[in-house]
Specification:
This protein has 657 residues and is an alpha+beta fold. The protein has six domains: 3-57, no CATH class; 81-134; 163-337, P-loop containing nucleotide triphosphate hydrolases (Rossmann fold); 347-436, Elongation Factor Tu (Ef-tu), domain 3 (Beta Barrel); 454-556, Translation initiation factor IF- 2, domain 3 (Rossmann fold); 561-655, Translation factors (Elongation Factor Tu (Ef-tu), domain 3). Strands 17-16-22-13-14-21-18-19 form an eight-stranded antiparallel sheet. The chain has a six-stranded mixed sheet with strand order 7-8-6-9-10-11, with helices on both faces. Helix 3 packs across helix 12, helix 9 packs across helix 14 and helix 15 runs parallel beside helix 16. The radius of gyration is 34 Å and the shape is extended. Bound molecules: guanosine-5'-diphosphate. Residues 173, 175-181, 279-280, 282-283, 315-317 line the site of guanosine-5'-diphosphate. The site of guanosine-5'-diphosphate (GDP) has 15 residues, from helix 8. Keywords: GTP-binding, Initiation factor, Nucleotide-binding, Protein biosynthesis. GO terms for molecular function: GTP binding; GTPase activity; translation initiation factor activity. One of its GO terms (cellular component) is cytoplasm.
Amino acid sequence: MNVSDLARQLKTEPNILLEKLPLMGFAVGEHAIQIDGSQVDAIVSAWNQYQKRERLKQKIASMQAQSETATEQENAENQPIQIPPTITVADFAKRIKIDVSKVIIKLMQEGVMAAFNQRIDYATAHIVAEDFGVKTAPGAPEAATISKETDIKDILKKEETLSLRPPVVVVMGHVDHGKTTLLDTIRKTHVADTESGAITQHMSAYQARVKDPDTGDMRPITFIDTPGHEAFREMRGRGGRVADIAILVVSADDKIQPQTLESINVIQTEKLALIVAINKIDKPEADIERIKKQLSEINLTPEDWGGETICVPISAKHGKNIDELLETVLLLATVSELKANPDGTLYGTVIEAHIDKGLGPVATAIIQNGTVYVGDAILCGETGGKIKGLLDYQARPIPSADPATPVTLLGLKTVARVGDILKRVQNVRDIKKIKKQHSIKVAMQKTQTKSEGEKREFTIPIILKTDVFGTLEALLGEIDKIKHPRGAIEVVKQGLGNFTENDVLEGDAIGARLVGFKVKPTSGAEQLLRNRKLVLVTYTVIYELLDYLRDELKKIIPVEIVEEPQGEADVLAVFDKSGKYLIIGGRVKDGMITPSSLWRVFREGEVLGEGSIAELQSNKQAVNIVRAPHEFGLKVRGDLVIKEGDILKFHIMKELE
Ligand code: GDP
C-alpha cells in the first residue's frame, strides 16, 4: 500500500506517519513509499492507540495546568500560615517561605537571640511573620518526631527518586447501575484466586493484574471499594486522597441520575481522571447514544462526539469490553505518570477500619509513598502501634507493602478512622506523646461544638452500631444532617459489632433505641430484649436506615400550622347582606385569591375583622382562582364589617414540613 494512501486513511501527513512508525516499533524507512500489506492492519491499530494516548496526554497536561493555577490562586489568597505553640527557627522560616538567615536577623532586631535550631513561641513567630507581611494563625502542636509534611504532594516534592506506581481506581455511580457487578467481574476475571479461596473478611480494596497491550507486561491496578461519597468527604477532611482514576458507571438502559451527578461532583472536586463506563449494553433497551447525549448536556462530551470524556461501553454482568476498560485505565495511568518512592518517607491513607473478633483493631490502608514493614512503629490518626502483621487484599500475610498497595495493618491499639494518615515514628513511645496532644485537640473541639449546639425540644436518643468503621462514620455524618428547628436524632453511644447485653441495659436505662447497620443482637442481648419494651431496628441499606430515623423524628414533632400570605385586594363595592353572608366586589392588587383563602379586613391600617370565603366569582362565574389585577365577586362569611374602600388581605393555613 502507498504510504500517502495510508496517511490519508489515518488522517495525517505521510512525513509524520514515516517519522512515527519506527517509534511505534515498525521497521519502515524514513523515505519509504510503499508499506507491506501484511503490516497495514497492525499499523492502523497501533496508530489509533497512539492517537488515543496523545489525546489523553494533552488532556492531562491541561488538567495539570488547571490544577496548578488553582493551587497558585489558593496560595495567592494569603491564607494565614498555621504555626504551632513552639517551633524551631528553621521550621518557622520554611513555613513562611523566608530565608532562615533573614528570619534570624529579624529576630535579633526584635531582641530575640535564637539560632536556627532553637525554638521560638507563637507570639514571637507571629510578630516576625508580620514584619515580612505574612499572616499567621495559631496551629496545633507539632507531632513529636514524625515528618511535618501533611500532604502527599509535599512528601513527593521532597523525594529525590520517584518510580512509577500502579493506579488507584474507584468505581462510582448511581445505585443499581452496576458498580458492585463491575468490581465483582474484575475480581473474578483479573485477580488470581487465593490458595485457600476463603476471603471471608470485608475487603475494601483489591489489585487486578492486566496485560498492557503496548508492552505485553502484566501490570497491577488497585481498585478500592469506598462506602460512599461521605467517605470521600471524611477523607478529605483529614487530608487523605487516595484515588487517581474514577470509573463512573452509568446504566445504558437508564439515564444520568442524581447520584451520577453527585459522583461527578466528587470526581471533579477530587480532581480524579474520569472514565465513563456505559454499562448494561447487553440489554435490549440499552441506548448508548442517549447516555452520550446526556453526558454532552452536562459538559462531559464523549470523545467520539468531539469532546474529551472517555467512554467505554461495557456489560459488567457478561464481562463484555472489560479488557478494553482496564486497558484504558492502564493507558490513563501511563500518561498520568503516577509516581512514588518505595524507599522514601512512609505515607498512607486508611480506607476502612473495624474491630475483628480474633485480630482486634484492623485498618486497611493504601500506601502512597514509602514501604510499610512488619515491626514498624506506626502513627495512624489518633491511634497507632507496633505493626504485628500485614495482610494483603487476599488476607495473606506479607512482610511489607509498597506504593499503591492495599494492606491491612494488625497491631493498632484502637480502631482507626477512614482518612487517617499513616506515618512511621521512631519508636512506640512517640505514639503516646502524639496521642496525648491529639486528645487535647479533640477535647477542645468537642467543647466548642457543644457550646455551639443548642438543645432541641424533641430528640430521639439512639445507640448506633455498625459492622465496619467506614459505614459508622458515613452514618454519623448523615444523621447529623437530620435536623429540625425543634428536633434531632441524638446518638448517645456508637460502636462497632453486634448489640450486646450492655447496649440493651444502657438503652433501657436512658430510653434510647438500638439502631444497627448490618449487625444483630447477641443471643444474651436478645434474651434481655424479650422482657423489655426497647426498640431495636437493623438495616442493610443506608438510606433505609436514614429514612426510618427521619420518619420517626417526624412522628414525634407536633405539626406546626403556619400562615402563608396569598394576596391583597381593594373592596370596590359591598352588596346585600343575606343572612350569614356578605356579597362584595373588588380587585386583586397583589397575589391571588382562592376559595380556601382566609381574609382579614383592614381600614386605615387597622384590622377590623376576619373570615372565610363561601364562593369566589369572576365575571359572574364560580372560579378557583383570581389573580392580580383582575376583578372578582366574593361571598364571604365571618365578621361582616366590610365596607367599600377597605382592604382585604388573604392567606391560607399550611402545615410546616
Ligand atoms: P450497584 O448498586 O451500582 O452496585 O449495582 P449492582 O452491581 O448491584 O447491579 C444492579 C443490578 O443490575 C443487578 O441486578 C445486576 O445483576 C444488574 N447488572 C449489573 N450490570 C449489568 C449488566 O451489564 N447487564 C445486565 N443485564 N444487568 C446488569
